[in-house]
Amino acid sequence: MAKKFLIPIVLLLSSGIILISRQDYFTGLFQNKNDDTYLSPISASEELIPMSAEFIKFRSLKEKLPSKPEEVSLIAVGDVMLSRGVAKKIKQYNNSNYPFLETKDYLQSGDLVLGNLETPITAGREIQSGEMVFRSEPGIEVALKNAGFNILSLANNHTLNFGEKGLQDTFSYLNQAGIKYVGAGENQQAANESVYLEIKGIKFAFLAYNYADVGPKLASEPTLAFMDPARMAETVKNAKQNADFVIVSMHAGTEYAALPNSFQKNFARAAIDAGAEIVIGHHPHVVETMEKYKGKYIFYSLGNFIFDQMWSRETRQGLILKAFFTKAGLTKIQFSPILIEDYSQPRIINDAEADSILNRLKYPLTNKAYLAWNEENKNFGEKINKVINEDSVVGDYNIAKTETGDLDNDSILENYELENGRFKIFENNKVVWQSKEEWWIDNFVLADSTNDGLKDINLSVWKAGDYGPSKPFWVEKNNPSVKNHFFVFDLINGEIKSVWQSSNLDAPNCKFDFSDLNHDGKNELVVIEGSYSLDNTKCNGEYAAVWQWNGWGFANEWRSEKGIFNDLEIEQLNNS
Question: How many separate domains does the chain show?
């Protein structure tokens, strides 16, 4: 019975995906785990083949498609309070990672992860239940880093609970952990400065502000950034000159209120007017409404993320949002409702309660179906996410992306670039290798596909040509038409070495990636397997599958029923 999944596939336990052919279609690239049939790798030193008329036509059709840059994802959560009852649970389980165990895999799927740290990190006395001053033990910054956080807002009403020393200690511990912070600084000027982070060529500026009637507003001592609309607007305008996107964090509102107050609205809208892309709010301890204002999004409160407020259902609920960006703008926002358990530990939920949390946004959302990996059953099941889709690129497109890495371990970073079907490797601004003219590269992934501890260069290649000496015995004759292939290379001592190459694939790889789905230390290849279209340029996704390198080929571990698969996203999510 074929099930139709009309949107991205999310492999929720690791990032590994490679396109796979159906079980009765094996040639070349993959091997059925119940079948002993293999295809030997073809030589990397194949002779230059003149471009066929079919390939020239294929390339001309591909070049007419729009180019879509690789997306950068930002995950944001609400209030992170690691004191009081949460600290007691950490002590009880003797594990500072305990609050993050159910969500860290998902958090780690984000390129950028932002939260509001509502707890100074400093040594001191134990905080008792019911107290309104918070403190976290040194060492919690390591747990925050392990969970995936790379930037935290300190602009809130509890950061100054332990005074100047508490704030200075927090700066020091976060710096040691390699976590950026925003909304606090050595003085008012530093507290109001933007923090910049650049990922995959996209530059983000972060700003954070706390409501104005809390804490000392000293100009020359460690303090916070307070909500001065005029000063904020000027800072946002300046940040917009130096970044592609400005993200504003806002700690304000009426506690436990379902709706934002007028001050929240005015401040958030002023930030958008000044050039902010998204405003993310917290402090009310419950999820509040959101709005689209002048084409940009304001989330007035994401609610609690980690807190010990178990006394009401609303304070145990929260939202994780994940926003996707290209250079051209915001493409999508997806939401993951959470419920806090055991006074300290949020878990992602996907049920009627999740819908009730999303309903608090008072904003129309779109259903998107995904495949979620179930480690216990070793298969995928359907998961529905709520999303906002702003992607202007509809239908087929060419991937444009850039990555950096030191794959040959010579302490010199290489740049790996894909544009208009051509893949190039640069070192010291010089091209050290590029794909052949008679190849069209759909995508590349730098990942340890062979599980030998070294990152490989994995390419989805379209080219014309027959099997050559590698023609399998069950194939009656060579097929010189343009077909899809999968190639694996290593960069060793500055030279490209072939690890494994497929012959013509009976079913092309529409999307692929790699991930350790079952957390056994070995990457799996996760794929959207397709079929060829009449013009040979469109890959129609029909199956999702999981494969693993077995020493000299890929063995099939799982394949979906036939469906419709248009895109692939791999995110890590615990299935507790």
Answer: 2
